[in-house]
Structure formats: structure tokens, C-alpha cells
Amino acid sequence: MELSIFLVQCLNAIQYGLLLFLVASGLTLIFGIMGVINLAHGSFYMIGAYMAYALAPFFGDQFLLQMAVGVVLSVAFGFVLEWAFFSYLYQRNHLQQVLMTYSLILVFEEARSMLAGNDVHGVAIPAWLAGSIRLGDVMQYPIYNLFASAACIVVAIGLYLVVNRTRLGMMIRAGASNRDMVRGLGINIRLLYRIVFAAGVALAALAGMIAAPVSSVYPGMGGQILIICFVVVVIGGIGSISGALIAALLVGFVDTFGKVFFAQFSGLSIYLLMAVILIWRPQGLISKGY
Q1: Can you give the pLDDT at residue 260?
Q2: From the centroid of its chain, how far is CA 146?
Q3: Residue 88 near residue 184, CB atoms below 8 Å
Q4: What whole-number distance in Å separates Cα of residue 237 and Cα of residue 281?
Q5: What is the reported pLDDT for 172?
Q6: How far apart are CA 197 and CA 118, in angstroms?
Q7: Which of 205, 193, 197 is nearest to 69 (CA)?
Q8: Which of 33, 39, 41, 37 is nearest to 93 (CA)?
Q9: CA 89 and chain centroid, separation
Q10: Can you give the C-alpha Rg of the chain in angstroms?
């Protein structure tokens, strides 16, 4: 393999891994910290992608403003969804959570079909992010892909700082360990969980908005990424944000280079990775801490 092709594949793997992290970090917050098995999480990614498709004609090249509006809308959607449905799931068993969230998948898919049809839709890359840039003397790389990676890195750093360096993050970590103790300290645990859930929805929707211009918008995209993100959460360690980041990058590299070198077995590569890691560390890569 030529050096330029190898480096391009490395950048593709990082970009894919970081997008996976955005979705998986939201799933980690909801599944690992709040204890809800949320099969509908992939639908939030799909909603974000369709939101990018719907908002694009109104914002044109103001892509950052479009993403900001999309994040605000997804946060509001997360608040309403948690209040209307998920707030009733915390005390239910996992079977009831699975049935409830699976029914939400069917509702979201039907709503998508009614509002946007079943065709594949493209989302144009903003003019200021179109084209490619030369990196050194060996390769060129699409500007939008670099932007997508940079945006994911900024969000990942912000999420780390919020969870580990703020009072809100301290309450979230305490609530994950002992919700009764947090409630006893006078903290509104219901509001705290509502904020966490809305943040998880916004992270998945943001990943969908970033991915839309390069992967198109199509039916079933939420289900595809949901399975991979559960693999990321399990490999990284349930409830661990830093574990999800490491696992997402690992999955990104294994999936990208698996498609290059073993195309006929590419669908198995990430599941083989999961099997090997779980044999080595059944609790995931990072079982303690966030």
C-alpha cells in the first residue's frame, strides 16, 4: 500500500471513529449512567441527519448556524421525549425498556416515511468546506472530512470537561453511582436525568447532521449505527466516556482497514474485535471512571 493511501485511510478511520464516539457517548450517558437500554438512540442520529436535510435550504452556506439550530431543536426534543416517555422507564425492568424503546423506533420510522419519503437524499457540502486541501507532499484530503473530525474533537473535549471538571458533571457522576444519595442531598435528580437525556439526544443528532453531507440521508440509517454503537459502549466499558472514545477509534480503524484488506469479511471485523477484547477484559477497556 502506498504511503498516501495509507494516510488517507488513517484519516478516514479517525473521522469515522470520532463520529461513532459522538453517538456512542450519548448512548453511554443514557445506557451506562441512567440505566436505560435505549434501542431508539440510533433514531436520534437519523433525526439529526434528516434535520440537516430539512434545514439546509433555509441556511445555505451558514452551516455552523444550521448545526447550532439543529442542536437547540434536538435538546428541546430530548426534554419533551424524556418527560413524555423515558421518565417512566427508570424503575422498569430491562425487558419493558427494550419493548418501549423499540416501539419508539417504529414510530420514528413511520414519521420519517410520512414526512420525507423512502428515497435517499443528498445534503450539499457548504461551499466554504467543499474541495480538498493538500497535506504535505504526499496527499490531498477533503476539507469537509477534516472539518467533521475537528468538530467531533471539539465536542469530545467539551464533553470531557463538563463531565470531569464541572459541578454538573460531578452531580451526573454521583447520580450514576447512587441516585438516592444525590436525591437526599437536595439535588433534583429528575431534572438532572432530563438534562443528561437531552444531551445524549443532542450528541446523536449532531453526529447525524455532521455525517449527512458525506453519507447521504436514507431510511434505516439509525438501525445500522445503533448496533455498532452498542459494540463501542460494550468494548469501552459501560458508563465510561473515555472508554467509549478509545473503543470508537479502535472500531473506526478496524472497520476502515478491514474494508480495504479483507473486503469479503469486513462485516465481521468489528465483532471479532469485540470478542477478543471481551475475552481479555470482560468488563470493557475502562471499567472504572468516566
Answers
A1: 83
A2: 18
A3: no
A4: 9
A5: 79
A6: 29
A7: 205
A8: 37
A9: 21
A10: 19
Q: Spell out the residues 6+ positions from residue 214 whose beta carbon is closer than 8 angstroms to its own.
A: 125, 144, 145, 148
Nearest alpha carbon to residue 92 among 82, 84, 104, 100: 100
What tens digit of pLDDT does each residue of 225-276 get?
999 998 998 898 887 888 889 999 999 999 999 888 877 777 788 889 999 9
Helices (H), the chain: 3-27, 41-59, 63-84, 94-116, 143-165, 167-177, 179-184, 189-215, 221-236, 241-261, 266-280
Gap between the Cα atoms of 192 and 59, Å rounded = 33
Give ∠ CA 246-76-24 in degrees, rounded to 5: 15
pLDDT tens for 4-63 read 888 889 999 999 999 999 999 888 888 767 778 889 999 999 999 999 999 999 988 899
- Return the bridge partners of 142, or none: 132
Contact between residue 173 and residue 13 where contact means Cβ atoms under 8 Å apart:
no
